[in-house]
Amino acid sequence: MAYGTTSSTPPAPPVQNDSLQEVPAEPIPEEEQERLQKDDPACAHHKRTVRQKLHAFYDRNFGLVLVFLAQTCGSIMNTAAKLLATGYETKFHAMQIIFIRMLCTTILGMLYMMWHKTPDSPLGARGIRWLLALRGTCGFVGLFGLYYSLSWLNISDATVITFIIPTLTALVCFIWLREPFTVREALAALIAFTGVLLVARPTWLFPNPPVDPITGQPEADAVVKTLLDVMSSPKTTPAPISPTQRTLAVLAAVLNAFGASMAYASIRVIGKRAHSLISVNYFAAIATVGSAAVLLIHPDLHFVMPESASQWGLIAVIGLTGFLLQFLLTEGLQREKAGRATNLMYLQLVLALIIERVIWGTTPPIESFGGAALIIAAAIWITLQKNTVVKDESKTKIADEENRPLLAGEQRAER
């Protein structure tokens, strides 16, 4: 072809590669999509992260769940005890209720320790048996005070008085263990006992008792109203409660708080030298023997047999919930910090108010609510101050290799 000429031949069409052509995608079956999602690393990582978060939440709050269940069992047990003591023509004395509850706790505790082969069970190490016996005796005295107070007080009033235990424990540890007792703790104690006076409502402070809005009678006399009337005999008439009886019941509730404080101080001294279930079993065994001895020796007291299926049911409820209370509370306190667990224990007052409203149809007067607010505020103040002291000590204390296990045992004992 000469230079400068053009070719009339049309250009060849481009060669098409079949391998590069786009093929319309076919729909993927649902089963295949699920398989691909399971095999997807991002999806698997997301599921694993969610599972880990749920497991971490469970581990972080499982102790609180156990404490909540323990408080629920305690409220149910107190309700059953009050029904047995006041709701039937055949009334059960506080000593017999203690005997029933603690006999069940002793049997179940012994079986549990035998099954799990608890070290040093059932008597514990030789050097601390007297401390274990002291813990059991103080617990028995306190338990008698609680059940005696339930014979005359509302459940909410008897429950709220137990919240002075942290304040009394600080005072007992100051006298017995020479632990510091600050001015703030003394002020909290004064606030707490002011709350107790409001709950007690002595006649020299409150000459005119509050009137129940439903019955028109004094609030202390309105004991049985709804469910109790159905469960008990028609011949049963609630006995009027005098100011003297109410004062004695409040003193018994304070005795319960003092006995519990002595028991907690003993547990603090024992520390980790004894398994927690051994301590509980000492308490249950001493209470069983002590209550049985009082019932046998006292001329005006004797064992009473249940006369109806509902009474047998209440006895079974007391035995089961009493053991679950001790077991769940011990397990919960071992897994949870003392501050969070103590604050959750105040939920028992809410449960007591609900139970009173549902079963007895009563609501405490404004004085009881004011006293409850003072007692709970003092208890929370004591708890927060104890937590601050522990944090400060953990920042300033230097633990070498020899005393680190001892310090760890002390921290666990405080819990």
Automatic annotation (TrEMBL):
The chain crosses the membrane at residues 61-81, 93-115, 127-148, 160-177, 186-204, 248-267, 279-297, 309-329, 341-360, 366-384. It is found in: Membrane. One of its GO terms (cellular component) is membrane. Residues 1-42, 395-415 are annotated as: Disordered. Residues 395-404 have a biased composition (Basic and acidic residues). Residues 62-200, 253-383 form the EamA domain. It comes from the Eukaryota. Its main location: membrane. The keyword Transmembrane applies. It is a multi-pass membrane protein. Keywords: Membrane, Transmembrane, Transmembrane helix. PANTHER family: ACYL-MALONYL CONDENSING ENZYME-RELATED, SOLUTE CARRIER FAMILY 35 MEMBER G1. This is EamA domain-containing protein.
